Structure formats: structure tokens, C-alpha cells
Automatic annotation (TrEMBL):
Localization per record: Cell membrane
Residues annotated as transmembrane: 39-61, 67-92, 127-148, 168-184, 191-213, 282-301, 321-342, 388-408, 414-433, 445-471
Biological process annotations from GO: amino acid transport
Keywords: Amino-acid transport, Cell membrane, Membrane, Symport, Transmembrane, Transmembrane helix, Transport
GO molecular function, one term: symporter activity
PANTHER family in UniProt: OS05G0424000 PROTEIN-RELATED (PTHR48017)
Family: Belongs to the amino acid/polyamine transporter 2 family. Amino acid/auxin permease (AAAP) (TC 2.A.18.2) subfamily.
Protein name as catalogued: Amino acid transporter transmembrane domain-containing protein
Cellular component, GO annotation: plasma membrane
Residue ranges of every copy of the Amino acid transporter transmembrane domain listed in the record: 35-471
Length: 484
């Protein structure tokens, strides 16, 4: 049974095959295989993307800002992230929210709603941000691997032993695993990785929270102050830079807008993808905010001014060592999945550009799929030579850069700062104004522009703080010689 379907000057042949078993293969209104995503899978993707390694630096970030500004800024970032994500989700379809033309990627949405130089600017910021996130996740995973080794060393040799560990071999091991996983062809096929990663993120966040609560109980007091780390512990200038850097760490902890459209493109309809995405964003941002408030605040309450940059690897806790090992193993498994969730849009973009710009004969040769039998799989895995080479080069590059510049807090703050304003706020606001034809100087237009302007100032401050942190780190570091 078959029919032709006319959409956007293209004709798709929509065939519905009903084999003997009665299974039906359906296609969506754009001729692509029917999407199967739900509120549950979309929420899993978002939580995998959001509750990443960023949660581990929140106690440190709260310590820089204090009991008033710390929780207030966390709540502000959650509100802005949710509100901007609803604006962005409404741009998935151009025109009618139920039947309009689909935008498969963030760049497609910008192209449909804004066009021109905005598209190139968005692409540069988005893909640079995804590249930076891959580096941040490689650093974070290696730190957790080292933490497991050091935790066991402290357990056997005592806390006074320095237990020096090098990060290079762990970064290489993480890179090798990512080379293998990066051969998964597309976003739809990593839903299982997202669910595993989401479960892991809850696991280590809960352990970090539990250890923070037990430390507060052990101390018998809540540490910290209303204004954060005191002058004397740090200089006035350091206090300013660290406060700015803390904003970048919080922005990084909430970032997922750069892959929101790609996640929305996995959702089935009806109901409209916008409604499902809005619900998934509400659930995931609410859950995330509760977690972040608890982890950031209890971590600060436990350690005060001495809050470590990474709650589970900074060795504020030594025991129970096996629980720390479980938490760090959960971080590693989570980051393995999160790396793929963030990199798939970048992989897809490069492969699409190659297809458009290479001659058809050349592309058909490099894009040839070779069936490789895999034990346990019914059908052979289709190995694509172009995918194998390009994605391997990408993973190797991010791994080498991570080995050269392994500054977790500074890298996290800088990535958060650079991506927060343009991707989370500016483009969603501008696309919403354009698609909903909001009149210039109307009260709604002014409010949206004020939101965008405020977030720009926060982004600039956070980037400045993170750059100051990197400059400070560079004074004492040697490439490829990082050890803890």
C-alpha cells in the first residue's frame, strides 16, 4: 500500500508495509520514519543534558556568592532557562504549531525565523559550545576516574599520603570509549543511553546530597555566611572574579537549549510537539532546580568557605570510601552518555555539510556502509567510513585539548558563560518576537529585550571571571603533566 505526499515542494513516497506479522511502519508528515518520543524520553534527554558535571561545582559557586545571592541566582537561572525553553520550543514548527514546517535543528529554527547573518552566528556559537562541552565532560570524567583511585589509596595508606595520580591515561580511556559510541548513527538511537545516564545523574547527585547532609550533622552547625567567601581568605579582586566565575558555573549547570530543538524532533504527535516539550521542560527544570538547591546549599553548609570545586572529587569527604567510588562511577557512566547527547547534533551537522558540498560520486564512496556482524545483534552494524574517520578525529581532538588544559571549574564557567546568553536567551527571544510578530516598543517587546539585556551582562561578567581563572591557572601548570 503506498501514496505520494506533497510537502514543501518535495514529494515523499509514503509506503505502509504490512508484513505477515501485522507490524505497520508509518511515516510522519515530512516523510521521515514516525517519531516515537514521549514526555518521558524527552525529560530523560533533558535531565541527561542538564544534570551533568555542573552540579558538582554548585557548592563552590554558592560559597563564592553566599547564602543570599547563591540560592537567588540558582533560582533566577532556573526561571530564565524554563521560560526561554518554552519560547524556543514554540519555534520548532514555522507557521502553524501543529502542522507548520518542521525545523530539525536549532540552526534550522534560526534560519526559518531570523535568517541572514543570525544563522552563521548561531551555528558558530552552538557548535563551538558543544565542542567545549565535550572537552569539559572529558576533563570531568577523568577527574572522577582519578578520584576512585585516590579514594582507594587514601583508604589503604591514610589521608596524609599525597596519593598522586595522573589524568592522561584516564582521558585516553574515556576517548577510546567515545570513539566506539560515536559510531551510533543518530540521536533517535541513543534514547537508551539517555535513560541510563539520567539514572546515573540522580545516583551521584543523591550521594553528594547525602554526604553533605551527614557532614552538616557531623559538624553540628551550618557553615557559610550571607555574603560568601570572606575577604582575607581571598583578595578583593579575587572575590569579584570568583563571584563572576560562579555565575558561569551556574549557567553551565542549566544549559541544554543548544540541543532542545534536536530533542523536540524526536517527539511523536499528536499532541503537538510544543505541548509535550513544554511539559518535559517544566518537569526536568523543576526536578533539576530542587536537586541543585539541595546539592549547592548542603555542600556549602558542610564546608563553608572551604567548599571544593568539585563536590565528589575535591576530597572534602574521605568516607565511606566505597560510597564515593559508587558516586564517581555513576558520574563517569553519566558523562559517557551526556557526551553523546551533546555531540550528536554536531556530528549530524558536519555530515550534512559534507553531503551538500562534496560531489555525489565522492560522497557515495566515503559514505558507503559496510555491514559488520556484531555478536548479540540480529542485524549487522552498518559501518560508515566517513562517520568512522570524522567522528574519531573529533573525539581525538577533544581528548588532546582536555589533556593540555585540564581546568575543570574554569572550563565549566567559560563554556557556561559563552553559551548562556546567545543560545539560552538571545536567539529564543528574537525568534519568538519574529514568529509571533510582537510589535516593537510594545510592553511585551520591552520586557523580552530587558530580559535579554540583563542576561548579556551576566554572561559577560561570568566570561571575564572564568578567563581570569584560566590565566591564574596557567601560571603554575605544565601541559600533559596534570596530576592530583
Amino acid at each position: 500500500m503506498g501514496e505520494s505526499y506533497h510537502h514543501n515542494n518535495q514529494i515523499f513516497d509514503i509506503s505502509i508495509d504490512v508484513p505477515h506479522g501485522g507490524a505497520t511502519k508509518l511515516y510522519d508528515d515530512d516523510g521521515r520514519p514516525k517519531r516515537t518520543g514521549t514526555v518521558f524520553t524527552a525529560t530523560s534527554h533533558i535531565i541527561t543534558a542538564v544534570i551533568g558535571s555542573g552540579v558538582l561545582s554548585l557548592a563552590w559557586a554558592t560559597a563564592q556568592l553566599g547564602w543570599i545571592a547563591g540560592p537567588a541566582m540558582l533560582f533566577m537561572f532556573s526561571f530564565v532557562t524554563y521560560y526561554a525553553s518554552t519560547l524556543l520550543a514554540s519555534c520548532y514548527r514555522t507557521g502553524d504549531p501543529d502542522t507548520g514546517k518542521r525545523n530539525y535543528t536549532y540552526m534550522d529554527a534560526v534560519r526559518s525565523n531570523l535568517g541572514g547573518v543570525h544563522v552563521k552566528l548561531c551555528g558558530a556559537v552552538q557548535y563551538l559550545n558543544l565542542f567545549g562541552t565535550a572537552i569539559g565532560y572529558t576533563i570531568a570524567a577523568s577527574i572522577s576516574m582519578m578520584a576512585i583511585e585516590r579514594s582507594n589509596c587514601f583508604h589503604t595508606k591514610g589521608h596524609e599520603d599525597p596519593c598522586k595520580v595522573s589524568s592522561n591515561s584516564y582521558m585516553i580511556a574515556f576517548g577510546v570509549l567515545q570513539v566506539v559510541l560515536s559510531q551510533i548513527p543518530n540521536f533517535d538511537e541513543i534514547w537508551w543511553l539517555s535513560i541510563v545516564a539520567a539514572v546515573m545523574s540522580f545516583t551521584y547527585s543523591l550521594i553528594g546530597l547525602g554526604l553533605g547532609i551527614s557532614k552538616v550533622a557531623e559538624n553540628g552547625q551550618i557553615r557559610g555566611s550571607l555574603t560568601g567567601i570572606s575577604i582575607g581568605e581571598v583578595t578583593e579582586m579575587e572575590k569579584v572574579w570568583r563571584s563572576f566565575q560562579a555565575l558561569g558555573a551556574m549557567a553551565f549547570a542549566y544549559s541544554y537549549s543548544m540541543i532542545l530543538i534536536e530533542i523536540q524532533d524526536t517527539i511523536k504527535s499528536p499532541p503537538s510537539e510544543y505541548k509535550t516539550m513544554k511539559k518535559a521542560s517544566m518537569i526536568s527544570v523543576s526536578v533539576t532546580t530542587i536537586f541543585y538547591m539541595l546539592c549547592g546549599c548542603f555542600g556549602y553548609a558542610a564546608f563553608g568557605d572551604m567548599s571544593p570545586g568539585n563536590l565528589l572529587t575535591g576530597f572534602g569527604f574521605y568516607n565511606p570510601y566505597w560510597l564515593l567510588d559508587i558516586a564517581n562511577a555513576a558520574i563517569i557512566i553519566h558523562l559517557v552518555g551526556a557526551y553523546q547527547v551533546f555531540c550528536q547534533p554536531l556530528f549530524a551537522f558536519v555530515e550534512k555539510v559534507a553531503q551538500e558540498h562534496l560531489p555525489e560520486s565522492t560522497f557515495s564512496v566515503i559514505n558507503k556502509e559496510i555491514p559488520v556482524p556484531v555478536p548479540g545483534l540480529k542485524s549487522p552494524f552498518k559501518l560508515n567510513l566517513f562517520r568512522l574517520v570524522w567522528r574519531t578525529v573529533f573525539v581525538v581532538t577533544t581528548t588532546v585539548i582536555s589533556m593540555i588544559m585540564p581546568f575543570f571549574n574554569d572550563v565549566v564557567g567559560l563554556i557556561g558563560a559563552l553559551g548562556f546568553w546567545p543560545l539560552t536567551v538571545f536567539f529564543p527571544v528574537e525568534m519568538y518576537i519574529s514568529s509571533h510578530k510582537i510589535p516593537k516598543w510594545s510592553s511585551r517587546w520591552i520586557c523580552l529585550q530587558m530580559l535579554s539585556g540583563t542576561c548579556l551582562i551576566i554572561s559577560i561578567a561570568a566570561a571575564a571571571g572564568s578567563v581570569a581563572g584560566v590565566v591564574s591557572d596557567l601560571k603554575v601548570y605544565k601541559p600533559f603533566k596534570t596530576s592530583y
